[in-house]
Amino acid sequence: MIVVFLGPPGSGKGTQAKKLSQELNLSHISTGDLLREAVKKQTPLGLKAKEYMDRGELVPDSLMIALIEEVMPKEGGFILDGFPRTVPQALVLEDMLNRHGRNLDKVFLFDLSEEVVVERLSGRLTCSQCGAVYHKKYNPPKQEGICDLCGGKLIQREDDKEEVIRKRYRVYAEQTKPLIEFYQERNKLTRLDAEQDIQEVNRKLLEVLKNGG
Ligand code: AP5
């Protein structure tokens, strides 16, 4: 099974991808996590990507396409979280899958308003060691400031400041929203009400993937 998660920043794509990948034994490919790892290790990709990410802009398609060519599994199911984000990226993905004789099963659109995005991202806490994601109010760690899973220190992401969050939302509206029509035309798109709580969104995802509706 090959699934794409599409939606504005902070709409819960990463949270749901982590859960669903365990529940359905799928690989989880998050381009945001891969880029943050590259920035941390100061690889050539990380050095180029950092300035775009800090400004809340998209990293150029050429870099993202090279990255996805490198990491996309040749077999087994996977969830793409944060890729594609532009029409050229979607066309390359379609071509790559075709070349490997594979097919995209579903694209989930996580629907969320800008105000909820800002509230969620300003309360988000991320583990500096393992990348686990929490929320001060909606998904707090057991012990303040400490990751439940690995004991790492919880931090606020550089791009989770209000002005950068609003910029990322604008970039989403301008450059990523055209993918809604792209996937609707291909009959792949399912809309999810991402304002519901974490368990309810997960329940809906499983229902659609298991029963188709
Ligand atoms: P990326 O890391 O992909 O950021 P994003 O898409 O902006 O998504 P987020 O990680 O911010 O949010 P999310 O939807 O995963 O929400 P989460 O589950 O964390 O990308 C970062 C940057 O990398 C981009 O800006 C760009 O520069 C670059 N990049 C990445 N991919 C690229 C590409 N393909 N092309 C070009 N550039 C690219 O949840 C958010 C918060 O809400 C958490 O605190 C969580 O606990 C909480 N929460 C989750 N679900 C719920 C719920 N149902 N109810 C209440 N709270 C909830």
Summarize the structure in words.
By secondary structure, the protein is α/β, with parallel strands linked by helices. The protein has a single domain, classed as Rossmann fold. 49% of the residues lie in helices and 15% in strands. α2 crosses α3 (44-55) and α4 (61-71) runs parallel beside α5 (87-99). The radius of gyration is 16 Å and the shape is globular. The model has no long low-confidence stretch (mean pLDDT 95). Residues 7, 9-15, 31-32, 35, 52-53, 56-59, 64, 82-83, 85, 89, 120-121, 123-124, 133-135, 138-139, 159, 168, 197-198, 201 line the site of BIS(adenosine)-5'-pentaphosphate.
Note the main attributes of this structure.
213 residues; alpha/beta; Rossmann fold; 5-stranded parallel β-sheet; 8 strands; binds BIS(adenosine)-5'-pentaphosphate
The number of E-state strands comes to 8
Q: What ligands does this structure carry?
A: BIS(adenosine)-5'-pentaphosphate
Q: Round the Cα radius of gyration to an integer and report it.
A: 16 Å
Name the average pLDDT: 95
